[in-house]
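Hi D.,

Good news: the full-assembly prediction came through. Inputs first.
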Amino acid sequence: MTEIKGENYTVIYDSNLATISFQGSLRLGGMSEYQPILDLLNDILSKNLPTMTLDLQELDFLNSSGISMLSKFIINARKHQVSQIIIKASANIPWQGKSLKNLQRLLPILQLEFS
Amino acid sequence: MKNSHTINQNESKFLAQIALLKQQVEELKIENSDLEMTLLTIIEHGDAMEAQLEEANKQLHAEINEKKIAEAKLKTMIEAVYQQKEDLEIIIETLTEHGDIIDTQLLEELNEVNNLATIDHLTGLANRRHFDQSLTDEWRRCLRENQPLSLIMTDVDFFKLYNDHYGHQMGDGCLTQVAQAIDHSIRRPADMAARYGGEEFAVILPNTNTEGAFNVAVKIQDTVARLKILHADSKVSEYITLSLGIGTLIPSSDNSPIQLICEADRLLYIAKQKGRNQIIY
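Then the structure:
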């Protein structure tokens, strides 16, 4: 288990499930503050796991730098020719519907699961 | 002699012919040699040209290959740049749409917070804070327009006894019904009903004189009476009743919203002193 924790958010990586869970509100200031999270994601990517899951169901808020960080990660995943990436999202959180579908345009094999 | 002379002449001619032929042979030899030289030169030149052409051809092929490799590299680069361009376009679109959605989400949250900050949770009427702000705003507006401003202060009669008799849960239900009755009794958009505190409610009536305010107060009383909320311990009725005080003033530099509240409160107090279930103005 690896954990990055801030005032209003938690990012936890569960290696047994190959799942990174995001919770709370991510309002970090700029890409530099998102770098530790992006590094964690890219580290997991470099392990070449058969499946990697991002659980965003409890991520209520993500600012623009945050979605930019996710976009960069998805482009990196495409370069790595990753076999499967699943994003678990919540239909009750307004931003997730549209923004995450756009990420699918960057990586068509990206699997979006809305609860 | 003549024969001998003829022979000599023929011999001379013959010798001359031989000499001529010899000369011709020599000339032909030279010509032949020249031709051989020319042919050799042409062959060598041809060989040299062929070698030169082959070399040029090789160079050309090498150049073509180089160009093909460069072209392929360029194509790969263009494809990569194009991919990056597409990615950037998607990212920009994502960021823009994300910004818009977040903006809406924040606005909704803000509205919710504003509602929580201005609405009384139990009754759904404006809370005391919202009432204070609205009264100040309406007081200023009526001051500018030189219009009367009325305020109804009202109290549920013997509410403490109601609570003691029926319990707090019923008490809350009673307050909610009374609040709705008050809210349904006002019509104009600028009129505002608020929970002032406990079982006390207030109604702000801009551009309304005492007579208009009295009509609203009567309507409130009637609406509450029609609810027929049983009140076994009331000393004035078997149902829930209200006492109401109406204050009216034309805002000026000599008065203030506090004065209006004090006046309506004072008249409410008199209504209670006089036996409750009545309107004093």
